[in-house]
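Hi Y.,

Following your request, here is the sequence exactly as I used it, all 203 residues.
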Amino acid sequence: MSAVHRHIELNTIDVGNFPSSRNGNKWKDFHIYLHDFANLPSGRGEDTLSPAFECNGLRWRLIVYPGGHDTAQEGYVSVFLTLGSPGTATITFDINILQKFGTRFDRPIDINTFDIISGRSYGASNLVKRSDILDPSKNLLDDNGTLAFIVSIKEEETEAMPTAFVPNNPFLDMIQDKFLDEETADVCFEVSSSEIEEDRSKR
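Below is the corresponding structure, written out as tokens. Let me know if you'd prefer a different format.
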């Protein structure tokens, strides 16, 4: 298993109306770069694992099989998203290739919602032919031979916790009333006139 050198998390600013395909939801995009793709391990079932990235409080990784997963057709590249945090999670995501000139590939993994168990993964066994990626006329690799994936994950809204109702406590007012009552007060504070004059002089 080989590791991808880096991933880049992008912060985006939206202007105007959201595309209808997103239905006004917020998505977080992650760009993951496989450098020197042509020389990555490309035997059938050999994978390349990205560094972990976080979304919705969970850790995720992209797994790429440059020579195809065991379930893939001959000659195809496979790609999967896997949950790196313990437990289970429901996720809505898509995966696409970012072409040389910054446009998205025309055969993405469609937007899907899955319940993922830690260690399990979802994606596409037959994303694109390896020969198409290596073909310079397809513009899938940049000039340095890097293949870029973009992973888009829908950000889940967290429900706000209801504000707890705290009733007024009359105890403080009752204590103050007792201290101010000459008949019930047990403590008497006596202040001499000289001390009062000294306090006034400090004002």
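The first helix runs from residue 130 to 134.

Thanks again,
Q.
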